[in-house]
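Narrative of accomplishments. A recurring question from our advisory board has been how the design workflow behaves on a single, concrete structure rather than in aggregate. To address it, we present the structure tokens for one chain from the evaluation set, followed by the sequence designed for it. No filtering or post-editing was applied between the two.
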């Protein structure tokens, strides 16, 4: 038998899923995350799931890992001391940045400008210049460049970025500086902007490459230590890391290009959601991943997640391909509080995290959290994670009672209901960012909910968005790990090509795209992926001449072979511009960047359908829950007992090892043959599979 092991590290729990490919049988484990060293929680989870499956760790054929190491290094400000080499005259490129301040009117008064990841005192200039067309204007001065590198060596830098003007058009100067750095700064990892982001715009290219250097030592240590620890446990299978765009990359390459991992964790959830939504017959849907610390949302159209060219982590926004995920500080551990000045209830973004966690966990936490509110309302069972985490109901009531007292409410239940309503509205706002703000009506989409806390709030989010059905996949608490285990390897090549349509032929564009495809394909072939099993996706960044931004437009591979390539591309660009801005310009269209993503085959994983139900589902118990302003008795079902065709009408609670699903009054959950729960209003006819 062949096993794939998916691992996802969250802020509160580490999820591990063991998948037997030929039968689709899965084994799950959920252990506490270990923020000081994520590999400890990972190894604990792997040992637990292998023991549950009754297999030796050496039976694992692949380890597929979504990680937040790079993300946390940025958020917590504990990256490397980065040295930056720029072209003479560009030393303050990071300080000048872009003249954009987030926030509303007068936001510049209160906005604390973040410090650059490479300090000015660790930034040096070298004499030498490349023109925009790639020609050499001024040769490099070796003596001066080596002296500057020795200055950085004396500053004690831990990583080096080389970002020279117009390096995207000609990388010879950057490569030469890197060669000298290997002699002057032995052992220091070097990131070249022409490799990390071979595209125009000096600030974005420099910032992205500096971010790569900033997290590289941390990611390299983690990957190296985890690889060694896995081998010590008898797991000799290759370790692959999930990229921000939902594809896999070998661990060694991930350590070289860690800026592509900044949204590794959330991308796994979207990939897993695509897998299960397809099994249920849906290709257009919103995803909603609620964990212990935050909630991630995304939009999937035609079975493909929307991919963005900007990755945001905290105050940092870099140019890196990633699933277009929006994150809000709303999770099961989000802390509720009542500011003394306003006396208005707030929830998050502060989180109780894994240590001490919500008051219900009994680890010393006293702050009222969303989890505590759900406990008070009766929505959660007496224990989580298959009995590993016992819940202290009285501790939750004491914590939530502080909110009731601060607001003058009659009972903890009233305060808990308010906490849940507010966190639902926060998550609804995030869903609007990826739907309404992008020109999509959420009512045209289904909603896939997962994460340990997601199914508790899924029905309410469906009611707010009008997105039906709400799909709760099997094992929603470990879906990110499932996504890691069911995705494919991927590589990307890109280049800048600033050409007006009038100065470009179909053959020129087709040839340039095919060259990029060959480059990415060769790298995948070197990793053992046969050429005949590879597929390529093409994307071109376009704008009207005179515009200061581009719009990415996807291009079918078939379009490269036929006539009218530029015509097809121009029509697609106009349609997307019209959708986004409701107007078109008569200016000449202009090509800016080309990008090709080459993917290997998706794993051939069999999913055994559920047996058909012959009667009504039987509850295992009942629970007193607060719903619609009153206490009602709700049946509690074990999801493992539900069969295809079973219908659970609310109010009801459906429990399983890694999550709990709440069915509201007036709604029902239908069990699909794939194992997913489809929630919708009782009087809802239900959309066709889409």
């Amino acid at each position: 038998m062949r096993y794939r092991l998916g691992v996802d590290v969250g802020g509160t729990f580490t999820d591990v899923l063991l998948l037997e490919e030929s039968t689709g049988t899965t084994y799950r484990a959920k252990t506490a995350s270990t923020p000081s060293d994520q590999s400890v929680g990972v190894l604990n989870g792997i040992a637990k799931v292998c023991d549950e499956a009754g297999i030796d760790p050496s039976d694992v054929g692949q380890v597929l890992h979504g990680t937040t190491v790079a993300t946390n290094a940025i958020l917590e400000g504990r990256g490397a001391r980065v040295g930056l080499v720029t072209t003479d005259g560009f030393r303050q490129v990071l300080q000048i940045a872009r003249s954009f301040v987030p926030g509303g009117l007068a936001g510049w008064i209160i906005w604390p400008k973040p410090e650059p990841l490479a300090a000015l005192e660790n930034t040096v200039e070298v004499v030498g210049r490349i023109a925009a067309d790639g020609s050499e204007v001024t040769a490099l001065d070796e003596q001066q460049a080596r002296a500057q590198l020795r200055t950085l060596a004396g500053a004690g830098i831990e990583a080096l970025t080389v970002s020279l003007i117009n390096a995207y058009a000609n990388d010879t100067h950057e490569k030469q500086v890197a060669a000298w750095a290997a002699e002057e700064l032995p052992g220091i990892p070097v990131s070249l902007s022409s490799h990390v982001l071979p595209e125009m715009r000096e600030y974005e290219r420099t910032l992205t490459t500096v971010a790569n250097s900033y997290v590289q030592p941390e990611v390299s240590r983690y990957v190296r230590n985890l690889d060694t620890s896995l081998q010590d446990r008898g797991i000799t299978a290759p370790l692959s890391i999930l990229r921000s765009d939902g594809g896999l990359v070998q661990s060694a390459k991930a350590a070289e290009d860690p800026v592509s991992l900044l949204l590794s964790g959330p991308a796994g959830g979207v990939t897993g959601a695509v897998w299960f939504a397809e099994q249920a017959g849906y290709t257009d849907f919103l995803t909603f991943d609620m964990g212990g610390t935050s909630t991630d949302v995304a939009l999937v159209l035609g079975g493909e997640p929307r991919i963005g060219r900007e990755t945001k982590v905290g105050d940092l926004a870099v140019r890196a391909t990633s699933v277009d995920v929006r994150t809000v500080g709303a999770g099961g551990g989000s802390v509720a509080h009542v500011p003394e000045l306003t006396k208005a209830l707030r929830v998050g973004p502060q989180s109780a995290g894994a240590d001490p966690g919500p008051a219900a966990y009994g680890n010393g936490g006293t702050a009222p959290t969303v989890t505590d509110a759900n406990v008070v309302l009766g929505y959660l069972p007496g224990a989580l994670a298959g009995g590993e985490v016992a819940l202290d109901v009285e501790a939750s009531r004491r914590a939530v009672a502080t909110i009731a007292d601060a607001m003058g409410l009659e009972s903890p239940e009233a305060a808990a209901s308010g906490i849940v309503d507010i966190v639902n509205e926060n998550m609804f706002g995030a869903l609007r960012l990826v739907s309404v703000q992008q020109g999509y009506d959420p009512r045209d989409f289904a909603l896939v909910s997962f994460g340990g806390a997601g199914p508790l709030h899924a029905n309410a989010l469906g009611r707010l968005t009008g997105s039906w059905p709400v799909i709760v996949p099997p094992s929603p608490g470990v879906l990110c790990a499932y996504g890691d285990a069911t995705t494919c390897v991927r590589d990307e090549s890109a280049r800048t090509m600033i050409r007006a349509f009038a100065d470009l032929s179909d053959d020129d564009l087709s040839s340039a795209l095919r060259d990029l495809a060959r480059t990415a394909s060769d790298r995948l072939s070197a990793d053992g992926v046969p050429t005949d099993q590879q597929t390529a996706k093409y994307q071109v960044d376009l704008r009207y001449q005179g515009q200061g931004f581009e719009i990415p437009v996807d291009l079918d591979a078939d379009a490269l072979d036929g006539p009218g390539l530029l015509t097809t591309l121009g029509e697609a660009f106009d349609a997307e511009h019209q959708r986004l801005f409701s107007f078109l310009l008569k200016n000449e269209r202009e090509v800016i960047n080309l990008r090709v993503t080459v993917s290997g085959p998706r794993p051939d994983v069999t999913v055994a359908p559920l047996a058909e139900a012959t009667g009504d589902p039987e509850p295992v118990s009942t629970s007193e829950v607060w719903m619609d302003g009153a206490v009602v008795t709700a049946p509690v079902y074990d999801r493992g007992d539900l069969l295809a065709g079973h219908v659970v009408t609310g109010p009801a609670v459906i429990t399983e090892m890694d999550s709990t699903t709440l069915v509201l009054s007036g709604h029902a959950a239908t069990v699909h043959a794939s194992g997913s729960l489809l929630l919708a209003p009782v009087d809802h006819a239900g959309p066709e599979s889409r």
